[in-house]
Amino acid sequence: MPNYQFYNDIDLTLSGEGNVADKLHGNWEYFETKNNIPDPDIRISCVEHIQGNAPDVTFGSAKKHYYKSEEYLISNYFGDKFGISFTNNELIYTNGSRQITFLRRIAEYFLRKNLLEKNKVMLHSSAVYFNNKTLLFPGWRHTGKTNTLLTLLHSGASYLADDRVFIDDNRTAFAFPTRLHLDGYNYRSFPELKTSSKNQIYRARLHNYIDRITGENSSFFSRGLNMASNAFIRRSGSHNVEQVFPEVEILDSSADGNIIFLKSSSGSDVELSEMSQNEFVRKMKSVNYREWDSGVLKLANIYDLLFHKDKSKLSEVEEFINRQEKAFESMYLDGSVYELNLPANSDTWTEKTKKDIINVIKEV
After folding, report:
1. What integer pLDDT is reported at residue 5 of this predicted model?
2. Strand order, beta sheet including 337-343
3. How far apart are CA 122 and CA 124, in angstroms?
4. Is 52 helix (H, G, I), strand (E, B) or coil?
5. Are 171 and 121 in contact (CB under 8 A)?
6. CATH 3.40.50 intervals, the chain
7. N or C, which end of the chain is more exposed by having fewer CB within 10 Å?
8. Under a CB-based contact definition with an 8 Å cutoff, are residues 134 and 165 in contact?
9. Burial 241-260 (b: 16+ CB within 10 A, else e)
10. What letters, b where the CB count within 10 A reaches 16 and e where it falls short, cover 31-48?
11. Do 270 and 348 form a contact (C-beta atoms < 8 A)?
């Protein structure tokens, strides 16, 4: 059973074998420890069977619903079940579950909540150490976090994170090295990647072509073709950063973080501008709600409806989100938060784009 220790602050244990455990381990393997953890802060367990529901305490439809079983809130999605205990910071799942992303996000809510008590807040962000500066690149999904990271790693940057990173109130960034998740547009923008075969490159080109010709067309045929492309042609993969960049240095932490919020536009210009405190906090709150917090709020609300506890779990999650927002406000210093405009289309992510990014970032 793997044990994980996050920044010597929070302990997590994961039991089970198979696809679910392997994918969860892929997110946290950097934090694996050989230390025995008898009383973890967060516990994720594989069970053979999750008890069925009583119809009178079910919320939802016949195929997609929630119910309670002992101390667990059970999510049943077309027969695929997992359980969550907000009281004990515990998750249970059955081997073969397809709800891996949701399991991870709930587990990392427990992690984020505990680390916030230690004055560490999570940014949905890639992060590197480059040109003697710690650089964090938060932003919405598909705005260029990974492409920006790849650009800088190709130029000799040290690696901190691809998708999320923790930062404390002294602006020290703490590494969260997950496997690089490379999608078709990453391969298209960086055909030299060591993981990209000719087959992957051709798949990426074909998928991007179909995406372009169907993107503005809402006909039944276009939507069907786009769905087929996403299901059977689009190719993505996850790789340890050392597989892609064998010489890369992976840091544990890096001080004096500079925040560069990413946005994308239809043009090809790379432009850097300063960002106000209110705008930064507003956008970070929106990003975290979309990527991480909305699902937790939904489950906490259902948990309250089913369990009738004295202390509302929904209020607890809302309190966490408010404290997270205060942490965003406190990390802001005048002139140290920027916004970087990047091209939205991978066709316009050229060698010139990469050079412009490097030159602009050197001005920070």
Report:
1. 96
2. 158-161, 125-130, 133-138, 257-265, 337-343, 271-274
3. 7
4. coil
5. no
6. 120-181+248-364
7. N
8. no
9. beebbeebeebebbeebbbb
10. beeeeeeeebbbbbebee
11. no
Asked whether 327 and 249 are in contact (CB, 8 A), the reply is no
**What's the pLDDT at 218?**
57
pLDDT of amino acid 228: 66
What would the two tokens of residue 110 be?
């427990």
Q: Of 203, 205, 204, 227, nearest to 215 (Cα)? A: 227
Tell me how far apart the alpha carbons of residues 75 and 63 are, in angstroms, rounded to a whole number: 10
How are beta strands 237-239 and 253-254 bridged, if at all?
Answer: unpaired
φ/ψ of 122, rounded to 5, equals -90, 140
Domain 120-181+248-364, architecture per CATH: 3-Layer(aba) Sandwich (3.40)
**Distance, CA of 225 to CA of 223 (rounded, Å):** 5
CA–CA distance, 192 with 147 (Å, rounded to integer): 13
For residue 356, which of 267, 258, 279, 275 has the smallest C-alpha distance? 267
- DSSP letter (8 states) at residue 56: G
The Cα–Cα gap between 90 and 42 comes to 6
Q: According to the model, what pLDDT value does residue 54 have?
A: 59
Please choose, from the candidates 277, 299, 297, the residue with its C-alpha nearest in 3D space to the C-alpha of residue 289: 297
Q: Residue 243 is encoded by which pair of tokens? A: 């597989």
Q: Give the sign of the dihedral formed by CA 315, CA 56, CA 52, CA 294.
A: negative
Would you state the pLDDT for residue 214?
60
Q: Which residue matches tokens 């090809």?
A: 268
The mean pLDDT values, 10 residues at a time, for the chain of 364 residues are 92 88 90 93 89 67 85 86 91 83 90 95 95 94 89 95 92 92 77 60 61 60 65 62 89 93 83 89 91 92 88 94 90 75 76 91 88
Query: Token pair for residue 316?
Result: 């607890």
Whole-prediction pTM value?
A: 0.84
Tokens of 257: 């973080």
Contact 218, 271 (CB under 8 A): no
Q: How confident is the model at residue 196, as a pLDDT?
A: 47
- Yes or no: say if 158 and 248 are a contact pair by the CB < 8 Å rule: yes
The kind and range of the H/E element at 213 are helix 198-215
